[in-house]
Amino acid sequence: MACGLNNWGQLGCGVRYENVNDPEHISFFDDKKIVQAALSQHATVVLTEDGKLYSAGRNSYGQLGRKTKEEYDASFGLVELPEGVKIQQIACGSHHYMAVDEKGLLYTWGFGDMEQLGNGKYEDETLPYHVKSKVLAVRRCIE
Questions:
Q1: pLDDT, average across residues 12-32
Q2: Distance of alpha carbon 62 from alpha carbon 38, whole angstroms
Q3: Which residue of 57, 100, 106, 141 lies most exposed, with the fewest beta carbons within 10 A?
Q4: Over the stretch 122-142, which tens digit does the pLDDT of each residue have?
Q5: Cα separation of 124 and 95, whole Å?
Q6: Could you tell me how far CA 132 lies from the centroid of its own chain?
Q7: For residue 78, pLDDT beyond 60
Q8: 58 phi, psi to nearest 5 deg
Q9: Nearest by Cα to 77 from 96, 99, 58, 55
Q10: Which of 114, 119, 120, 138 is nearest to 129 (CA)?
């Protein structure tokens, strides 16, 4: 269920309009188990149990991590990760995302004008970029 600001389609309900006041069912995830979501200013990235990421919303800086025909996509689509990468954890800033895979490797994408992506550049990354760094520890709480 999703509700709230949807001016860039960030709720992933298939349409773009200012607000969704009543919770709306997102059928895209009916056959998937969601383990985490990260919501930036105008985009949403969802992590599923199988380590895949799905994004919806504004893509002006590449924050969806995938190609879109427009400056936004109001429907969820698969983030373009390198083959075989399974994500364990995600986080976001206002216009960028970070993901750690099962090996502890860090990937970043989106707005990079202030070097926040760790790629050594003042540039956006439209697809997940593997940050060359030490392996990060990943802990997952199991209920």
A1: 89
A2: 15
A3: 141
A4: 999 999 999 987 666 655 555
A5: 10
A6: 20
A7: yes
A8: -70, 145
A9: 55
A10: 119
* Residue-wise DSSP of the chain: -EEEE-TTSTT-BSS--SEEEEEE--GGGTTS-EEEEEE-SSEEEEEETTS-EEEEEE-TTSTTSS--SSSEEEEEEE--PPTT--EEEEEE-SSEEEEEETTS-EEEEE--TTSTTSSSSSS-EEEEEEE-SPPPP------
CB atoms within 10 A of CB 118: 17
Mean per-residue pLDDT, 56-64: 97
11: left (phi over 0), alpha (psi -120 to 50) or beta: alpha
Residue 66 token pair: 């995938």
